[in-house]
Design goal:
Order of helices and strands: EEEHEHHEEHEHEHEHHEHEHHEHEH
CATH superfamily of the largest domain: Glycosyl transferase family 29
Family: Belongs to the glycosyltransferase 29 family.
Number of domains: 2
Radius of gyration: 21 Å
Subcellular location: Golgi apparatus membrane
Low-confidence stretches: 1-5, 7-15, 18-75, 78-86, 91-95
Largest sheet: 7 strands, parallel
Number of strands: 13
InterPro entries: Glyco_trans_29, Glycosyltr_29_Sialyltrsf, GT29-like_sf
CATH class of the largest domain: Alpha Beta
Strand content: 15-25%
Main location: Golgi
Oligomer: single chain
Mean pLDDT: 79
Protein name: ST8 alpha-N-acetyl-neuraminide alpha-2,8-sialyltransferase 2
CATH topology of the largest domain: sialyltransferase cstii, chain A
Length: about 400
Amino acid sequence: MYFVTIHCSLCNTSITVCLRTSCFVQEKLKLPFKPLESTQCMHSITSLLFKDQDFVSLTSIFIVSRKAAAPVDPTALPRPSTHTDHRRPSNNTTVKHSPNSWTFNKTLSNLIRKNILRFLDPERDISILKGTLKPGDIIHYVFDRHSTTNISENLYRLLPTVSPMKNQHHRRCAIVGNSGILLNSSCGLEIDSHDFVIRCNLAPVEDYSRDVGRQTNLVTMNPSVVQRAFQDLVSEEWTERFLQRLRSLSGSVLWIPAFMAKGGEERVEWALRLILLHTVDVRTAFPSLRLLHAVRGYWLTNNVHIKRPTTGLLMYTMATRFCEEIHLYGFWPFPLDPHGKPVKYHYYDTLKYEYTSSSSPHTMPLEFRTLSTLHRQGALRLHTGTCDVVQKLQEDLQSK
């Protein structure tokens, strides 16, 4: 173990931390060091420890000395309050917005982007690049450091040579979640009117386009999707359905978190083999090994104590890098809508989910309350009702 002193010019704080040479902090120190209670200066610590894709347990950092107390971050989010009825959002959570009640706060949006960049650079971290790894290299899973996988020839062939988001900037972006709140929303045309559309987990659009739109510029695909939505490709029929979904992407970015957790490596390999065999027109991306920890570190500094960021929150955090104005659709982690009517977990299937289960790796209601706060502040727009397509198109024409 050794000591490193970090000085943060942002908040004029010096912190000395005790590290192991691997920069992977898991050792419980026996000396009476004070825990890092408020996660101040976490951006400095993570930027040091995540060099060369090292890892750090954010809860295992101990302060040896602090020379000055950090001032309150003006962009820090207020701590979301807890509530007992998890079927609906709390009364102080924005759940329905009139068309004219939201104004974009460009100053705050730029400030959030600047702060996120202290933790990660989404343009770089959106994917590992060819040249940083080679076939046969051993990778430790992000959430299971004791388990490893090898870089296959197929994965190496599909690694991008440059970031798929290099030099991209878009005025208006839509991030489309998969909540059943989208059903009967008539938001399809509005979603497709954005300059860049991000979707999650290969959610189907063809039969739901009236509510969710069709345009896709980037879509995520957790390995479990191959099993859950395409029956592990057990037959030619399911393999063809999977291929049709991939072909429908037509040059979009396919973002595959291949190194997050053990158990999905075989499904990832099936998908990669099909993409190569059928020369499917997609641009594959595989997130950097530091991304999840860096994103979590950013939100922890803002008193948002998430366990593991959901795909939706990950996409919002990264989108701040290349989107000026961000609109969220299909984000609704409650089984009832604002009127007390049942809401499906996914708009396209019958999957059941306990949003507040202690065994879940996610804290969805907490994330939603955080996003609602950002909506009220004008940093993003959270759409949870039906869409007035005519009025929206008129607003877009007037703003151009």
